[in-house]
Design brief:
mainly alpha; Helicase, Ruva Protein, domain 3; 142 residues
Amino acid sequence: MVEAEQTAKVIQETRENYRPVAIRGSVLYFVIADLALIDPMYQYSLEFFMKLFRIRLDKSAASDQLAGRLEILINDLTKSFYESICRGLFEKDKLLYSFLITSSVLRRADRIAVPEWNFLLRGSPTDFKNKENAAADLIGDE
């Protein structure tokens, strides 16, 4: 019983060490799942996602250090999913997909604040209707 508890503790600690990889995987999955909102053709199953995820875990480079291994896994997963999904996207949607991945990763890491995200989505709340346009004045004078 004591040995089983020790083994369970080691498994739990190891699982917690790999949580950043799971977080990146969840971010990528939800970006890919949301692609169907852009075009109905972009529907990817959880089975497809899990298969690619497992393949990348097996094929990614090894490292003796945990921090190095985590960095390798996160970078490999992100790049592989980007490349795999881009193959099936229309050219017009590839830049949007890149933006969605980048912004989702940054938002998850709290590197994009809520006001910044709102600005990206909605634009500036400032009303510029009453401001003079100096460039238009210069063009009009010629």
